[in-house]
Amino acid sequence: MKYALDAMASWREETTIKVNILASGSAGNCIALTTGEKTILIDAGVAKTKIEKRLLEVGIRSDEVAAIFITHAHGDHTKGLPLANKYRIPVYATQGEWKGISGVDEELRRECETTYGLYDLILLDEFEIRPFGVHHDAYEPIGYSITDIETRVSICLDTGKIDEEMLVSMDDSDIYIIESNHEPAMVEAGGYPDVVKARILSDNGHLSNEQTAGALQRLIRGCGERIYLTHLSSKNNMPTLAEMTVKQALKHNGFVAGKHYEIEVV
Predict the structure, then answer these.
(1) pTM listed for this prediction
(2) What distance in Å separates the CA atoms of residue 26 and residue 161, rounded to the nearest whole number?
(3) 9, pLDDT greater than 70
(4) What is the CATH number of the domain that holds 107?
(5) What is d(CA 110, CA 125) in angstroms, rounded to the nearest whole number?
(6) Which residues have a Cβ under 8 Å from the Cβ of 34 and sit 6 or more positions away?
(7) What interhelical angle do 209-219 and 239-252 show, nearest 10?
(8) What is the average pLDDT score of the chain?
(9) What is the spatial distance between Cα 87 and Cα 49, in angstroms, rounded to a whole number?
(10) Nearest-angstrom CA–CA distance, 144 and 170
(11) 89 has pLDDT over 90
């Protein structure tokens, strides 16, 4: 056991992409990934001033951000995009999602393009970014698989289900940043209107704890992967419940938190 723990500690030291989750949840989402001297943001869903402040708190200046990658055009993922105009930061989004994004200067707009139905690889300094399709009630929502050659990070936020193509896109990652939005029984018993409940629980809504746990059962190999559970509902979930559901699922595969993988609820 000591050898396994030492091996995992060594793996963590060798991880070359640093993750800072600046905001997570229905109030706003923003993730900073840094390798070497380069930082990119996945989403900018809180006010520009909050992003600036939270970047400084983790030792990153806003003018050091090389690009912003948007998963989809909902406000809790795009609210802070005025940051791009202020610091002249390129913004990447799919053609569909640009329909719902306004206020970004034309020369900063970049499109995630496809070839024969698959998203093209985006090369940005040390980063290689590959978008993949997800299932959400937006125009053309995506997740991202990102590598600097040595470390691979997969980011899957708002989606109502995880299909085989998404699993293939995320497979063999060192770090998983994934939505664990709700517990279905809490949604059903809650005070939301029926139409909102139906949206959350649909295949174009959000992942339940059980769905997230099931996906991670397919992805985690017990090699010291790091899991971040994100985008938890403040009304329809509890951090301990989300974490417990994943741990129990991975225990069925013989994997124990702290020994075979690390998990954090954000």
Answers:
(1) 0.94
(2) 18
(3) no
(4) 3.60.15.10
(5) 16
(6) 17, 18, 20, 60
(7) 40
(8) 94
(9) 12
(10) 8
(11) yes
The two three-digit tokens of residue 211, written as one number: 């769905």
If one counts the domains in the chain, the total is: 1
Q: Give the tokens for residue 156.
A: 């899957």
| % of the chain at pLDDT higher than 90 | 92
Domain that holds residue 169: 2-265
DSSP reduced 3-state for 249: helix
Which two structure tokens, joined as six digits, stand for 115? 């070839």
Rg (CA), the chain: 18
Q: Nearest-CA neighbor of 157 among 18, 24, 22?
A: 24
| Interatomic CA distance for residues 78 and 102, integer angstroms | 9
φ, ψ of residue 66 in degrees (nearest 5): -85, -30
Query: How crowded is the C-beta side of 75, counted as CA atoms within 13 Å?
Result: 3
Instruction: Go through the chain and tell me how many residues it has.
Output: 266
CA distances from 16 to 19, 37, 123 (A): 10, 11, 17
> In angstroms, how far is CA 214 from the centroid of its own chain?
17
